[in-house]
Amino acid sequence: MNKRTISLTITLLIFMLMLFPASIFSDDDSFQWQIGEELIYKVNWSFIRLGTLKLQVMEKRILDSTFVYHIKLYIDSNPLLFFVNMHSVYESFIDEQFLPQLFLANEKIDNITYKTEYRFNHADRLIHINMTDIKNPTKTIARDDSLNETIIDGTAMIFYARSNVASVKTDTITTFFEAKHGKVHINFKGKNSKIKIEALPAPVKTYYVDGSIKMNSIAGLTGPFKGWFAVDRQRPPLKAELKVFIGYVKVELEEWKKWNP
């Protein structure tokens, strides 16, 4: 190979690297965030539709000098049901390691609904908590709680699972939801067989997880669970089986934006 051929080859390689750096060096197994992603799920108890869950990735922004993802989780019960009435919005601001920096929610404590704000100071290992009575804004609660261990909120837990579903391992995570703390045991099993959901025309490959929630969370969520995630870079949850206050329910993806099955 003469010098001219070598020079031309090097030039072509440099040109390819400039045009396609992501495709050459990307890890196809790594989780990929998608700004604008919206996932909507139906929640069924036997033949009865209990309600709807909506999960949105709103934006990536800087919060207190840290890059965070702003996520919203909407929980709405079926208005036709008399025995359940739930309409809540939870906002999480989490960093690349899925650690919460800010968590916003409306929480009912002792029959009073508070607008709550949790700010996480990981350097000083403190959680700054502010609560304001929605009906009486002059009534507020402000306190600092110790942050003695790594903790992530319930919404961030979904994205933590999405990031790790390709692994084969067992984790125990401390999580919180509506001022309640507890442990979640997760068994990541790696790829599993295909599953079928109503919103897709054909079965799809999935990652499978199962485990147990060692706390009594929102809507009585506790005990064993199972989950199936799509095998692609975004890894959206496709289906889950959970135990809540009325028994076992099935959660299944039915609509989406910014995801290509």
Can you tell me the number of structural domains?
1
What gross morphology would you assign? globular
Helix content: 10-25%
Name of the level-1 CATH class: Mainly Beta
**Do you know the CATH topology?**
YmcC-like fold
Uncertain segments: 9-27
**Count of helical segments?**
3
Query: Main beta sheet, described?
Result: 15 strands, mixed
Topology:
Elements: H1 3-19, H2 21-25, E1 38-45, E2 48-63, E3 66-77, E4 87-94, E5 100-109, E6 112-121, E7 126-133, E8 140-146, E9 151-153, H3 154-164, E10 168-177, E11 180-195, E12 204-214, E13 222-230, E14 237-244, E15 247-257
Parallel strand pairs: 9-10
Antiparallel strand pairs: 1-2, 1-15, 2-3, 3-4, 4-5, 5-6, 6-7, 7-8, 10-11, 11-12, 12-13, 13-14, 14-15
